[in-house]
């Protein structure tokens, strides 16, 4: 390829993380033509995000990882959009964030307001005024703000690393519409697992399919790749149109969906009881629960738009947000209201013993410098011996597809690997209640289904699961209950069709659970 045609190129790329035997890339040749829109597709951990960072120069200029190339061409003008917009913000208000970008470009202050408004209009972000707190925006609005901010630099190349990973369905649709609107005349390099909205926009010219070892398996127009390489997509568990339907019709999917005897036994003990319960952020209630109950063997999917209060519900239950009202955990009433430091510490210690928790951002919970030590950390708290810990850790890493990464720092994992590590560390102790905040985001199809199968295995052993998710198939078909949260309140609690037959036989209500009906369920 002629140099003047390439937006970015690398030849003979060799790269591997320190202390590991296997290469992430070995003699990889890759290039993108100016104006081309390319999707990098492959299983979690195959090196897609790493390649974006190499093509931009982030590796090795900012992140020092050993690599070698025979030739390399970096973009002359580029900007990077990450999956979590909050990692890109430097200022607390919208106008200040945009002004920060303009100041770095030397734009005179009198010209800034017009440019800010034009950038926001370009990404479809309509705000009442420019001086709006970024914290008040939904996740989808934040991601469009981040896109507006990088567009102020008028980059020729946009590198998009799973920009829809943390968004609800509406937010995903909005961000891809915004990207499609600004894509003309620009080069796009995209890493994305969720491809429904992306392909619906007709945004991609070429798909490059990677295998788990970082090799290119094939490339071409989207419809050609999805058809020609269907067997590889299936073999390596990569997302493609129709994969959910095929999985749910498979033997593993049918087993995941089948009714079982221990789905919320009507006369079993209540694991969690909530009544007039509220969780607070900065003194303001952000989640309210009139009445709700969780039983052993429940799998409750919590859905709702970004900013509705789903994560706040989990954080209030674990004790990381202050709360008030009635909260009974495993038959013992938890202290709520204003607590002194010693009481709050006691509550957190008790919660940690009885509840496994996975944050929406996996990096928030990492405490060790090695993957194996991260999983082993909580086991040491349980007083297990060295050999017993080693065996449990090896088994857990194998179950979550992390074998071979024992010595890597958690921050050096891919997004999907970080998420699997966070779930593994939470699930290894097999506490009776598991709170999962978006455990499947950033995962390829194989790992998404593996996490669901593990959750079902735990559920059948009587472990209760509260899972925040934006995946409607999980909420409507896989979970046993569906709680919908909007504007800081649980609006509905419904038994899913999967659990309805068993619950009807047990004499438990199977329709929507309203405030009065919830009390009857709790009484059982």
From TrEMBL:
Region described as Disordered: spans on this chain: 503-524
Entry keyword annotation includes DNA repair: no
Domain named ABC transporter: residues: 10-238, 272-512
Gene3D superfamilies from the UniProt entry: P-loop containing nucleotide triphosphate hydrolases (3.40.50.300)
Pfam entry (one): ABC_tran
Keywords: ATP-binding, Cell membrane, Membrane, Nucleotide-binding, Translocase, Transport
Location in the cell: Cell membrane
Full protein name: ABC transporter ATP-binding protein
